[in-house]
Amino acid sequence: MLRCVLRLAVWALCAAGCGCADTRAAGRWNGTMDTLPSGHIVVRNPPASVWVEETAWRVTEEARIGSVEGSGPATFGRIHGIAVDAAGRIWVLDGQAQELRVFDTAGAHVRTIGRRGGGPGEFSHAVSVEIGPDRNVWVMDPQNNRLSVFDTAGNYLDGKHALGGFVILPWPGGFDDLGRYYAPLPLPKGDFRLAMIRFNTALQATDTLEVPTDPKQRDFFELRSDAGRMISGVPFQGNLAWRLSRAGTIWGMVTDEYRLFELADNGDTLRTIIRPFTPLPVTDADRETAREEMKWFIERGGQVDWSKLPSSKPATEAFFFDDEGNIWVEPVTEANRKGRVRDVFDPEGRFLGTIELPFALQSSPAPTFRAGTLYGVVHDELEVPFVVRARIDKPTN
Questions:
Q1: pTM of the shown model
Q2: Which of 154, 172, 178, 173 is nearest to 91 (CA)?
Q3: Who's near 153: CB < 8 A, 6+ residues apart?
C-alpha cells in the first residue's frame, strides 16, 4: 500500500508541471511532463530509453497460421481483422472470402462462419471483428448496415443496425473499454472528412467526436478528367495518422514531427507526446521505388513533379495500442528492417524503449493483444498473409 501511495505522489508532482523524472524498471526516465493552464499535458521524451538490456521487452514467435498453396481455411486472401476469445481461439476475418475462420490455440482450424451475402450471418463487405463487452463476437459489415453478433460456438445471435453504406479500411471504429461502440460518419460538406459517432451500450447514438486534421498543408498531385478527380500524395511526405483508443478518446500522430496527441470529445488537446529523431535521407534507390509505385497514376495521365519529393523521410508510419494502454509506434527504418521495429511508450507517454521484432509486423489491421500475447498479420516475400502468435516477455529486474 505504501508503494502505491508513493507512486501516486510522484505522479501528482509531475502533473503539476515540475518536469520531474520517473523511475521505470531498472532505468530512469529523464524527460519532462508539464501541465499547461488549460490542463493540456506535454510530454517531452529524451532520446534514451528507460529499458536497459536486462529489462527490455522481447517478442518471441510461438505459432504461425497460413499457407502459400491450396484453398484450405488457412489460406488467406486479405485479412481484415483478428480477435481472440477467452479460450484463446483466434478469429480471423478474411475480407476476400468474406468468412470468419476460427483456429484453436495450436493453430488448428475449428470452424468457418459466414459467407458472402445479405442474409442473417452473411457478409457483404465485413471490415472488422472483435470480442464485444458481452464476450460475443461482433463483425462490422457496413455494406449491409449491420453488426452481426455470434457466440463463441459460432452460432448467429443477432444483427444490430449500424451506420454504414461506405467501406473504410482499416475500419476506424469499434468498442471502448466501457462497452460503447464508435462508427465513422462522412461529413456532408467540402472534401471527404469524417466524424466519429459514439453509441451507448444499447447502440443508441449519444455523441459526435471530432476527427483530427493535419496541421500542415501537404502537397499532392491531381488529375482531373471527365471520369472525375484523382489525387495522389507525394512520396515520402509526412501525414497525419489517427486512431480510436480503448479509453474512447481519439489520438493523432504527425508523422514527420514524431508527435502524438490525444483529443477530448470537444476536440481540445489532452496530451501531447514528443520524441526527438534523426530523419533518414531519401536515396536514389528510394526515388526509383517511388517511380515504380507512381506508375498507376502516371499511366492514367497524371503529372508528377519529382522535385516535390522531400530530401528526408518522415519519422514514423503508424501506431496502435496494446491491452494495457501502451502505445506502439512504427518508426520509419531502413528497408531491411521495415515492420520489424516498434517504439513503445507507456500510457502517460514516457518512451520505454525499442523492440526488435522477429518478423515484419503489419500495422493494418492493428494487432490484437491478450494477456502478454500479440496476435498480428505478417506477409511472406510473395505478399501472402499469415497470422502470428507471439509471446511478449517483460522482465522487471
A1: 0.90
A2: 154
A3: none
